[in-house]
Amino acid sequence: MESKNKIALVTGGSRGLGKNMALSLAKDGVDVMLTYNNNKEEADKTVAEIRSLGQKAQAFQLNTGDVKSFDAFINQITTYLQKEYGKPNFDFLINNAGVALYAPIPDTTEEQFDNIINIHFKGVFFLTQKALPLINDGGRIINISSGLARFSYPGSSVYGATKGAMDVMTRYMARELGQRKISVNIVAPGAIETDFGHGRVRDDKELNAQLSAATALGRVGVADDIGGIVAFMCSERARWINGQRIEASGGMNL
Questions:
Q1: Is 159 tagged catalytic?
Q2: What pTM was estimated for this model as a whole?
Q3: Which of 3, 62, 75, 244 could be 35's S-S partner, Cβ–Cβ 3.0 to 4.6 Å?
Q4: Residues 80, 85, 159, 172: which is the catalytic one?
């Protein structure tokens, strides 16, 4: 039976910011497909939580840095969408999945460099490319950047530069996809207390205090500060925002 609900795909939607994005979308009446890399248990919990809100949800395994796996993944979600909704289309792609890298330039290995590029840039580009035939005209793509693309903290050179590349790519996507009325924006969180990067911001009290002092609102962010912004960007209220970088950092390093 065909649903009137909009449908979102959230990569890395099983925990942290991605989970909050998925739940925020569900609270807005959006059905959710989410991906996880390793932790199926957490993904299943998030799916159950979304379903308890009255929305459809399904989790799929995906390593967003492995471009060769994308065709099989697209086939999986196409089959699911066709079965569940009667057509293989969805409305919102949220390119959220990611990993951290804290490594000074002299110590960064080629393997670390390639991993960050593959997950945060190459993978986002080609997953978006593969998903485009499934995204409804008038849909939305939300990419995820970082405050580290605007200001610099030692050890985050590769991660921050890759997010800077996504800032630029977002404008190109918005320009090229405008003919299909698909808007593309990028949301840039500042320092956030989640398990990202092994919970570094959350658990290192000295770092937490330092980042809080650099933030106009006097604290680091939490997941609840970000998910609602992504949901808003997928709503009718945000329909005229396109090609923009929206930083949500509480005013870090102003």
A1: yes
A2: 0.95
A3: 62
A4: 159
